[in-house]
Structures are given as C-alpha cells and as structure tokens.
Amino acid sequence: ERRLQEEKVEEKEEEKEGDAEAAIREKEERMQRLARESAERRAAQQKADMEAINARRAAMAEEKDGDEPGGGRGGGVSGALSKGDAVECRHGGGAQFYPGKIARVNSNNTFDIDYDDGDKERNVRQSFVRKLGGGGGG
Questions:
Q1: Which helix (H) or strand (E) holds 100?
Q2: pTM of the predicted model, to two decimals?
Q3: Of 40, 47, 101, 133, whose CA is between 20 and 30 Å from 32?
Q4: d(Cα 128, Cα 48) in Å, to the nearest integer?
C-alpha cells in the first residue's frame, strides 16, 4: 500500500514536471512568434518609411522642376497646389495616399483636405500631399 502511494506521488510529480515543460515550451513558442511579428512590423514600417522618403523626393523634384501648368495660385511656398485641386494625401502622415481635394491653403504652408471618402484633415504638411495628374480643382 505504501509503495502504491509512492508510485502515485511520483506520477503526480512527473505530471507536474510535464506540465511545467509544456508551459515553458508554450512560452518559448510565444516569444518566438512575438519576435517574428515584431520583426515583420519593423520591416513593414521601414518599407513605409522608404516609400514616404521616395514620395517626398519625387515631390521635391517635381517642385524643383516647376512643370505644373497654371500653378502658383496658392502662394510661393505651396507651389502648384491651390484650393480645389484634386490631390492624394498621406492621411495622418501614414504611408498610403488617399484621394481628396484641397479645401484650404493655410498661411503656415499646410493644407486642409477633404478626402473623397468624406473624411477631413486639417493642417496637412505639404510633404504629405501630391497633386493628381490631369485634373484641376472644381
């Protein structure tokens, strides 16, 4: 009888060890998954940052070229962008551009944007705005 109790105690201890090992494995797997997800997020953010940099470079090159016909209505710093222009903007400074129109050219060289989906954004930096080709305001 005593031997039977000892065997039961040993079985319970082995179960606890097995449960502890399983818990450790689960934690390790979770940590590895979180590390992978974090790396993927960093890579996506770096890609978005590079896209933003490239968009800004393109915008700067376009401003430098000054090839926009009929530009300059909005003031010296705002370049060819003026009220009513169809544009694409990086909403909230994000990486993706969304279509909209310039609702107002502000004196601090920013724009108020009315997006095509009905959203509105105020004081958008010029570096987040690009004019849509082939279409003016209206």
A1: strand 97-105
A2: 0.41
A3: 47
A4: 13
H or E stretch covering 12: helix 2-65
The arithmetic mean of pLDDT across residues 19-37, rounded, is 91
What mean pLDDT value characterizes the chain? 83
Vertex 113 angle, CA 109 and 119, to 5°: 150
Cα radius of gyration (the chain): 29
Structure tokens of 38?
A: 């974090």
Q: Are 91 and 114 in contact (CB under 8 A)?
A: no
> Of all helices (H) and strands (E), which one includes residue 6?
helix 2-65
Residue in 134, 133, 131, 128 with CA at minimum distance from that of residue 56:
128
Is the Cα torsion angle 122, 127, 128, 132 positive or negative in sign? positive
Encode pLDDT of 86-99 as tens digits.
999 999 888 899 99
